[in-house]
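Example 4.3 (complexes with small molecules)
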Amino acid sequence: MTEADGSPQLDALIVGAGLSGLYQLKTLRDLGFTVRVVEAAKGLGGTWYWNRYPGARCDVESLSYSYSFSPELEQEWTWTEKYPTQPEILRYIQHVADRFDLLRDISLSTRVTSAVYDEKARRWTVTTGGGDVIGTRFLIMATGCLSVSKAPEIPGAERFQGPTYHTGHWPHEGVDFTGQRLGVIGTGSSGIQSIPIFARQASEMTVFQRTPNFSMPAGNRPLAAQEISDMKENYRDWRGAQRASGFGVPVDKIRAKVADPEVAEALCPTSFPFGTKRPCLDTGYYETFNAEHVHLVDLRKTPLQEITESGIRTSESTYEVDAIVFATGFDAMTGALTAVDIRGKGGVALKEKWGEGPRSYLGLAVAGFPNLFTITGPSSPSVLSNMIVSIEQHVEWVTDCIRYMRDNGRTEIDATTGAEDDWVSHVEEVGNYTLYPTADSWYMGSNVPGKPRVFMAYIGGVGPYADRITEIARNGYEGFALKT
Ligand code: NA7
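Answer. The structure with NA7 bound is encoded below.
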């Protein structure tokens, strides 16, 4: 369907061609809706498209980190390792796109810059970086929780004469640090996964650590044929259990792995309780610091002061380097949503509404922004779960909602402010029963200077959360105002 001026009019526009966007496209298209995906990258995969630094791997086991919606897909796809590598996940995503013929409804290299709600027409007008205008009844942000890299807010970063890289935006052609003096800033999951590999290349490597992290050996290995076939036999039961979800338990043995006791001590996490920052899985991370050419700088003792033309200066000395890797993380959970100029009722900007922290009903909808859905949005379990389970949950809920609206002749759905307030209070209350708010983490938004310090995920559990949103839908979308 097109407007008189030729601009497309859709039932739904999906932003993002990662695991969420692809499944959302399939479910809506299967119901006969006119739907399109726009994606800023040149390829599919979302977070997995960009995070291609060496060693990038999912920290959920591959047999669980896969779609559950198609028993056939489950049977035909075979994972090779316990924890899937980024290239293998991308191959899986490509396979899904080919198998369900998704590509024909996806526009790559297309970035959405603004979305404005027309209250009269009850439709969104979406504009892309290329100047295209798309009209749509529903706007579905499938933009991911960890997709906007956090710029390193370090004085002088732009002065450095050598190459700099961010783990969240790694060059597609790869980088070889052989023979180079390398500085790595950041020891979160991305740093911990990539540092052992950089150490094999660099002639000298200095790791700048602000906060030591909890990391456990991944114990990665090829999957045996028997365990794959056992899993394939039991997939259906497993998927049911998965939607109720669970957590792992740590064993930490850093002092036994690192020869230099001072370095070992510096690597031991002490400043926050286990789990309040996302625990990492590593392969040989701590042992890397036993190599003579690998050095650890403890930024708590000698704070980072600036980046110079040729190196990194702390309060104690300057480290000359040829290249710098920023493994400094993401503007998590809200970054990709506030990066688009989204204007709801009365022209209010989402960024403005979220000035004091994200407010959302169920992590799915935002009061005053009708017909807008956020897949794994803030205040849903999202990053506190196996993402793909939460993605499927949200995608299916949104699809059912849009179908319900079509079947019942409704053209607008908007969360009420009261329901949103209650949900935000509930999320906060449950979060306050935990230790999460005690740590400075990306869960709290506190890794980004100036970002409000709010616990952005829902810790009430994937299973109970699913029951709640299902119940809300069953009761005719409680907490939402629907218009015909
Ligand atoms: P994370 O986990 O946010 O880690 C970022 C790291 O970078 C962390 O060690 C930060 O220290 C450090 N950092 C950030 N900014 C600075 C500055 N300015 N100076 C020094 N050090 C800094 O991001 P990742 O990409 O590793 O992982 C994100 C998630 O992806 C992960 O949890 C998994 O779910 C997958 P800090 O801890 O803030 O002191």
